[in-house]
Design goal:
The complex is a heterodimer of chains A (about 375) and B (about 130).
Chain A lengths: L23 H6 L3 E5 L2 E6 L3 H10 L1 E5 L4 E6 L3 H8 L12 E7 L5 E11 L2 E6 L4 H11 L6 E4 L5 E6 L3 H6 L14 E6 L2 E6 L8 E6 L3 H15 L4 E3 L2 H10 L34 H10 L3 E8 L10 E4 L2 E5 L2 E4 L6 E8 L8 E6 L2 E8 L12
Parallel strand pairs in A: 3-13
Antiparallel strand pairs in A: 1-2, 3-9, 4-7, 4-8, 5-6, 6-7, 9-12, 10-11, 11-12, 14-18, 14-20, 15-16, 15-19, 17-18, 19-20
Helix pairs in contact in A: 2-7
Chain B lengths: L5 E3 L4 E6 L2 E6 L1 H7 L2 E5 L6 E2 L4 E7 L3 E5 L4 E6 L2 H4 L3 H4 L8 E5 L11 H13 L1
Antiparallel strand pairs in B: 1-2, 2-3, 3-9, 4-6, 5-8, 6-7, 8-9
Classes of the chains: A alpha+beta (about 375), B alpha+beta (about 130).
């Protein structure tokens, strides 16, 4: 018993000291269940994954996401460098606008997925996955030597707290004078949060209304902010949320996770992310391969599915289409809010339409699943 | 009430002897570590298990875990209530959250399990690690 065979979250690698986010002390005060994640000492849960997940959908949650990487592009050719590295069209951004994009390999696959924030014509602020930070930074630097731009990794300076859920705005408003209600989805602004300089973005990884706040102050002030958010959040039913629910929340609304759903062996078209691929913009890494693939068509596509038979499909379980094994499950769980066994997987073209059935090998049994429309969960604007 | 006839494995299963039959479940420590149980995969009645074989699977949102047979024998009954209410394992791990009943073929295997006092010490050892 207690062999957490699938959950990367529960594998403790105690090699050397773990990195601590600026909110670390708060997690111990809040009695979070701490685990190692990408070299960081982070909470996997506080009260419990299911309870935290449901709280975010109905009231709100507070997340330490400081492990994410912050990379700045500064210089006269900052835009050119961003355009060359990423799949989306960063020229469409205005100062204060955020864009979801792909950092592309030469083959049109993902080095990582990221958020591009335009501060000004000469300054962009990019947020990347913790697991890929070093790789991304090295990639960005080595691929932009022809541009007049400085690529700077400022991750160590930043702490990031996400406040997500229908009541997130009410809570954050108690800490800032910024007019949060006026902010539209995927915009950001500089402001003050509890007297600290902050970047406040209306972004998130939960499928809910919410904000991500970046601060540069020290650990003492940061932990105080985290604890006060939790304390003042109580009256709204807002609770601290760990990495466990962060994963189940993002899966319920079908937001891709690098290493699960997207990686360096599936293209952006196969990953069903054509909406962040702008082939009509100028040259960028991977463009030629993707142009060709768009012309010839893809052979497989990432889809959402629901189990029909009894069982939960998990990352890595073999997928069978017409009796033949076809890759493995990307992501899967029993989602706490919808209470359905759902997931995402690649399927061959022709088998990707909603209603199309396939099998998942769960332990030794083949269990039937069917393709369904995504996302599984979509938030109701009226709930705010 | 003191829990008599109760044995524990190092894998955090409990076993309660009822004649030559044993009821098996997971301990409070185990359910707590696992988190909210969302799915239980029960064995077929009649299945023969050797001590240490996986008898059932318990899943939470983020983890999958085997329930090993603490003794050898044949599955004679499974807790069907867990199909609709897997959370019983969290709520009442030692009572309504029982998982399967096994007819023991080698009662001597009980000697290799811990009693409650030894299990409590074992847990203290884990906590101190």
């Amino acid at each position: 018993m207690i062999n957490f065979i699938l959950s990367e979250f529960f594998i403790k690698k105690m090699e050397g000291a773990l990195k601590k986010t600026k909110f670390n002390e708060a997690h111990y005060v809040l009695k979070g269940k701490m685990i190692e994640f990408c070299g960081w000492d982070l909470p996997v849960q506080y009260s419990g994954v299911s309870a935290e997940h449901v709280a975010v959908r109905t009231s709100g949650g507070i997340f330490d996401v400081s492990h994410m990487g912050e990379i700045f592009f500064r210089g006269p050719q900052a835009l050119d460098a961003v355009q060359y590295l990423t799949s989306n069209d960063a020229a469409k951004l205005f100062p204060g606008k955020v864009q979801y994009s792909g950092l592309m390999t030469e083959k049109g696959c993902f080095v990582d997925d990221l958020l591009v924030h335009k501060i000004s014509d000469t300054e962009y602020f990019i947020v990347v996955n913790a697991a890929n930070l070093e790789k991304d930074y090295a990639w960005m630097k080595s691929k932009t030597t022809q541009f007049d731009v400085e690529v700077i990794n400022e991750s160590a300076d930043y702490a990031q707290v996400a406040i997500q859920g229908p009541k997130a705005g009410k809570l954050l408003a108690e800490f800032t004078k910024t007019d949060l209600a006026a902010m539209s989805y995927y915009t950001f602004t500089k402001g003050e949060v509890m007297g600290m300089d902050a970047i406040i973005a209306r972004t998130g990884y939960t499928g809910e209304y919410g904000f991500e706040v970046y601060i540069k102050d020290d650990a003492q002030k940061a932990s105080k902010l985290f604890l006060e958010l939790c304390q003042k959040g109580e009256k709204y039913g807002i609770v601290p949320v760990g990495l466990g629910a962060r994963d189940s929340l993002r899966l319920e609304c079908c937001m891709a996770l690098y290493g699960n759903d997207i990686d360096d062996s599936h293209t952006i078209l196969e990953a069903n992310l054509a909406w962040i691929l702008k082939l009509q913009k100028g040259d960028f890494i991977g463009k030629n391969v993707l142009l060709k693939q768009k012309e010839t068509g893809i052979q497989r596509k990432l889809v959402g599915f629901e189990m029909i038979g009894r069982g939960i499909a998990r990352h890595g379980y073999p997928v069978y289409v017409d009796g033949q094994q076809f890759e493995t499950i990307c992501s899967g769980t029993m989602t706490p809010f919808l209470k359905k066994a759902v997931g995402m997987t690649y399927l061959p073209i022709g088998k990707t339409e909603p209603g199309s059935e396939f099998q998942v090998k769960i332990r030794e049994e083949l269990v039937t699943a069917k393709v369904v429309a995504t996302p599984f969960y979509k938030f109701d604007q009226k709930s705010i | 009430m003191a829990r008599v006839n109760l044995f524990f494995s190092k894998d955090h299963e409990w076993l309660r002897v009822e004649g030559d039959m044993a009821v098996v479940g997971i301990t409070d420590y185990a359910q707590h570590e696992l988190g909210d149980v969302v799915f239980v995969d029960l064995p077929a009645v009649g299945k023969e298990l050797k001590k240490g074989d996986s008898g059932a699977n318990i899943e939470s949102v983020k983890a999958v875990s085997d329930v090993y047979a603490p003794v050898s024998g044949k599955i004679v009954e499974v807790n069907q209530n867990l199909s609709n209410a897997p959370v019983l394992i969290n709520q009442e791990p030692f009572a309504a959250g029982w998982i399967f009943k096994i007819s023991m073929t080698q009662a001597s295997e009980l000697q290799e399990l811990m009693d409650e006092k030894k299990y409590d010490e074992y847990l203290k050892g884990i906590a101190g690690e």
